[in-house]
Description:
The protein is an alpha+beta fold and about 450 residues long.
Amino acid sequence: MLRLIGWLFGFGLFMGLIGLGAVGYLIWSISEDLPDYTVLRDYAPPITTRVHAADGLLLAEFARERRLFQPVETIPLQVVNAFIAVEDKAFYEHGGISFEGILRAARDNILNRIEGRTGPLVGASTITQQVAKNFLLTSEQTWDRKIRELLLALKIESTFSKDKILELYVNEIFFGFNSYGIAAAAMNYFDKALYELSLSEAAYLAALPKGPANYHPFRRPEAAINRRNYVISRMLEEGYVTAEAARAAKAESLNVVPRRGGSRLYSAEYFSEEVRRELLSLYGEDQLYGGGLSVRTTLDPRLQRFARKALMDGIVSFDETKGYRGPVTNLELSDDWGADLFEIEPLWDVPEWKLAVVLEMERNEAKIGLRPSAASSGGVSDERIVGQLPGPEMRWLSPKLDQVLKVGDVIYVMPVEGKEGIFTLKQIPKVEGALVAMDPRTGRVLAMVGGFSFANSE
């Protein structure tokens, strides 16, 4: 009996050594074919090119990925703590791999399967592992890729400082809203620089890398707030914030203020497009859309607004002498005219003009419904705004209003100054024009308008 036990023990030991050797050989063979992690030393992410007016006003941004690079030493401690608390609490202690996290994730995954809970596996990736995956590997769920990730994490930790690893991480990850990197996310979600973020805002940004779509501020606000509050709770547990500060931050709403992409000055689209073409010619596509160029132009925003108004007023006045040509389109109105009208895109660069639909027609007067705004949760809002379109407000119109409009007509209108709820009829002019203002002494272009609407000419 003892001989049998000894034989079984020896056989088990022999098989264990074979298995251990096989695992060792597998790891060795994979380690011989790892990507070159030293390329991270020369990390140069594609950065947004920004174009400014003469006074510094932002005119336009050009990028494939909206990204602003933020050196780690300029990232506020509050922002760093938010990411450390929720993503990798032992970041400054481990050597790239958290064995405690691996064991905890294995336990949770086994319990989830035993209890019949489905869903994705619980992960245990450290920030260093995420850097390895994001920069050097794919996201495929295979053992081979996971082993590569672990080996690369160890090598990255032995080569780079913790601050460098953190800098790589926060500048590369995707936050949603076409935001790559923490600085771009702060601008695109809150229209703020990092140093301006509150505790609540920093926690929300730290919540996003797990899945921006899952915590969308408008489509899934409840999930977004819950995840943000979880980050704040983790910061409290780690001693990064006081209980009072955590309580106050959790009580805040998300306060997300999406920042509009592209031109910040509605009247400068034509000018910005000419600058884009010139930059493309001088520096090429890669530099334009990823080189992080900072361009100061000669445009004077005040003169630009005057130029745009003068050209638009002149074009519209001339066009109105030719009479009304008809509506944008005609809708078969359902019970919800607002939802029908919402499907039609307005002229985004002529914000003073509103898209509307004729709801009722009387003698020389129309009741109109204005295009509703987007709801915070996505789709169309429930608000419905109506107004009146009286014929006497349109002396240029011939024949009478009830002879050129009918129910369902989609039209452009503009509010009449000083008369609430009263609008006047507008139409996109057929005639076009252009205006360029230059400094005669230097030849600098101070203002440029290339037509009535850049959106309509695209």
